[in-house]
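thread: overnight batch results

M.L. [08:02]
morning all. the overnight job finished for the chain we discussed friday. pasting input first so we're all looking at the same thing
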Amino acid sequence: MRSSPAGAESLPHLVERDAETAVLRAAVEAVTRGQGGVVVVDAGAGMGKTALLRRARAAAVDAGVVVLSARGAELERDFAFGLVRQLFETTLPVDVERRRALFTGAAAAVEPIFDLGEGETGSLFSLFNGLYWLLVSLAESGPLVLVVDDAQWADPSSMRFLGFLARRLDSVAVLLVVATRGGEHDDGGLLDDVLATEDCAHLRLRSLSPAGVARLVRATVSGADDAFYEACHVTTAGNPLFVRELVRVLAESGSASETAAVVTSAGPEAVRGHVEARLRRQPDEVRRIAHAVAVLGDSTALTLVAEQAGVDVATAAAGAERLVRHGFFGAADPPAFAHVVLRDVVHSLVPLAERGAGHDRAARVLAASGAAVAAVASHVLRTVPAERQDRVKVLVAAAAQAWQRGSPQDAGTYLARARQEPPEAELRSEVSRLLGNCEVHRLAIAEADVHLREALALAGTPEQSARCGYSLARFRNACGEIPAALTLLRQVARVLPRDAPAQLGRDLVSELLGVARSDLSAREELVARLAAFRATADRTDPVLAAHLSVEEVFTGGRADDAVALAETALDGNRLTPERSALWSAVNTLLVADRLVEAEQRGQRALRNALERGQLFAVGIVHAYLARISLLRGNLTAAGEHVELGTRAVPRPNVALPALDAARVHLLVERGRLDEARAVLDDGVLADGAMPSASLHTWLLESRMRLHAASGDDEALLTDAMACGTVYARWGVTGLWDVQWRLHAAAAHRRAGRRDQAAVLVAEQLRLARLFGVPRHVAMALRAGADGDLGVLAEAVQLLREGPARLELAEALADLGEARQRGGDRAGARATTKEAAEIAVGCGAEALAARLTAGLTVGGGRPPRIEVTGVAALTPSELRVAELAADALTNRQIAENLFVTEKTVETHLGRAYRKLGVRSRTQLAVRMSHR
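M.L. [08:03]
and the structure it wrote out:
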C-alpha cells in the first residue's frame, strides 16, 4: 500500500478552521492507536471542505498512516461501486495473484467488483460484508484512513457500503472521513447511516466571520478600511472561495480604490457573474475546452478532451494551460477545474437544449476510445431518446455489468433508459423482462409487476413468451398469488418450443411442481406431473427427491425413508432458497423432528439468499426458521425470526401468512389474545376463511390455538375438522405438520364427547407409531392419557430424547398434576419445578408463571427457577456457540453472520460463562450434549 508524501501537495491557507483541524488531527492520532472512527465534514460549495480534507490527508501521512482517497463526481453516480473502486484499486497489489490472495473468505464475493472474478455477484449485503473483510485484511498491515470527498455525488452502492462500514469501525483500525455538500444535494438519506454512527464527529463548516474575511482579504489587498472588509463579508456571505474570487474581481477590474462602494456596487451576484464574464472573454476554442471538461468530467485524458472540443491536442493543451492561468482549471494535463463551483458555472452556460448533444458526443468519443461501458452509458443516460440502437446496446451492456457487480438498482436505471429509447421490436420484451427482474431484486413490487406483464405482452416468439411467462409466474408465486402463478406456468408449458434451452425447460418443471404442491386444490395435476418427471429424471435429482420425500410422509410412509429422500435432495446444496423444492425437503425434516438439521439448512439458506441477493426469499427463510424455533421451544428465537422476516419482505409476499402464523402462536402463548385476533383479522384467513395454499395451514393451526385459549371449542372443532378435509383433498393420508386430530380431540373432550375424542387420538397414535417419530407418539399419548401416570411418564421419556423442549415442559406439567392428584406431593413438586425451568428457558413466560404459582399452592415457598446451560443462551449467543463448536474461527464466524469479530468475541465470552466452559473443545462437547 502506498500514499503520497506530505510534501507532494501544497496545503492551502485555512482561516477559522482551527477547531475542525484539531478534530481531524485527534481522529488520526486515535487511529494510530488502533481506534477506528468516523468524521463527516458538511459544507456548502466553496466553504473549504476539500482543503480541510487535504490537511487530514497530510496529517495521516505525517503519522505514517496509509491514506485511501476517493472523490464523487456527478457523471459517475451511475457507476456501481465506482467510489469503492477508487478507494481500493490504488492500494491493491499490482500482481493479479497477490490481489487474489486478499480475496479469501467473505472477501471472495467482491472479486467481480474489481474485475477479478467471473459470474454474478451476490446481494449488496454480502458485497458490503466482503468489502469490510477486505478492508480488515488491508488494515492488518497498519491503520488506514479513508478520505471521501464530494460524497453527495457518490454512487448509491458505495454510499451504502460506507454506512455499513461506519457501524463496524469500533473493532478495526480504520478512520473514515467523508465530506459532502449535504445542504445542497439530496442524497436520498444515504449518508444517514454514516451520521448515525455512535461517536461520529459531524463538522459543519460555518461561513467566515467579518474578521475572518478581513484576514483573507489582507493577504492580497492591504491598507483598506474596516468598511471595505465589512462590504467584502456582506457580498460574499463569508464564503472563502467567493472571497478569493472577489479579490480576483477587484484585481482584474483595474480599480485602485479599496472602498466599500467598489465592492457593494457589484451586488451579491458579482462573483458568479464575473466568472461567467471572464469565460466569455476567452477565445472560442478555449471556451470549447472548458465546456468539454465540464461534460466529460475532471481528469479526462487530454486527447479525449480535444476530440470532444473539436480541436487538435496541441490546441487543447494550450487552452488548458490558459484556463489554469486564469484560475478556471487547477491542472492542465489531465485538465481539471480548480473548484466544482467553477465547473458548475461553466456547465450552466451551455443551453439546456444543447446539453444532450454534448453528452451524445461524449458517449461516442468515449466509446471510440475503448472506455468502460459504464462511463459511456453515464452520458447516454443524459441524452434525449432517439430510437438509437447503438445506445440501447450500450445501456443493456452497462446493465449487465451493474447486475454482475451486485447493483440491481443501477442495472434498472440503465434498462429503464433503454426502454425509453426504445429498443427495436425484437428486443423490447427482453429489456422489460430484465428491468422487471431488477425491480424484483430491489423489492419494487409495483414496478416489477408492470414491466414483467409488459414483457409478456411484447414477446414475439414462443421461446420469449415462455421465458417472460416463467419470470412473471415466479414473481406471482413469490407474492403469494398461487393460482395466478399456476395458470401462467400451464400456459408456458403449452407454448414452450421443443428446441428451447434445456435449463429453461427444467426450471419450468421444477416451478410447476412447486406451485402445484403449494396449491391445495391441485393434487391431481401434481401427481400427474410428478409421475411424468419421475419417468425421465435421475433418482438423485434434488427436485424429484424433495417431492418424493413429501409424498413418503403424505402417504403414511416411514420417517427414516422420507428423511433419506430429503437428505438426497439437500446434499450438495443444489437447491437455492427461492426454489420451493428446498422447502419441501426442509418441511419433511420438520415433520420427522429432525429440527437441528432443519435449522442448519435454514441458516445456510439464509446466508445463500443474502449472498445472492435473493431478498424476496428472505421472508420464507425466516418463516421456516420461526417454525423450527417454535417446534424446538425457543420462543425468543421464533420472535426474532418473525420480526426479521416481516421487516425484510414487502407486501404481498408468500411468506407473510407463515410469519403471521408464528406471530399468532407466540401471542397466544403469552396470553395476548386480542393482539392475536388482530393479526388474524388482517391476514389471508380473516373472517373465518379457509386455506387455499400450503403455508396457510400453519395460520389455520394458529387460529385453532387462539380458539382453544379463548375457550371457543366449537370454533376449534370446526377449524380442526376443516383442516382434516383440506389435508385429505391435498393427498395427506398419514401425518403432516398440523396435528388436526389432536386439536379436534381436545375440543371433543372438553365438550364431554370422550368417545369421539378417543377415536381421533387412537388414529393419531396409530399413524404416529407407523411414522416412527417419538415426538408424534408422545403428543398422541399425552392427548389420550386422561391423567394416567404410566402413559404420561412414557410421553415424557419419549420427549426427553428429542428437541421439542416446550412440548416436554407441557408434558411434565401434566405429569406433575397427575402426581399431585395421586398424592405424590414431592414427586409432583420436582416434576413441576423441572417443567417451569424448561418453560423459562423456552421463553414461555405464561406457562412458567402458571407452573410457579401452582408450586406455592398450600403455602409452599416459590422455588428458585434457574435457567442454565444451552437454554440460557440468547439466539445470537447460541448461533455463535454452534459455529464455534463446529471449529470455525472468530473471523469465519463473523464473516458467516455478517458481524464484526468484536461482536463474536462478546457473544462467545457470554456463552462460555453461561455454559461453564473455558475452551472450544469443552464448548464442542457441551454443545453436543444439549
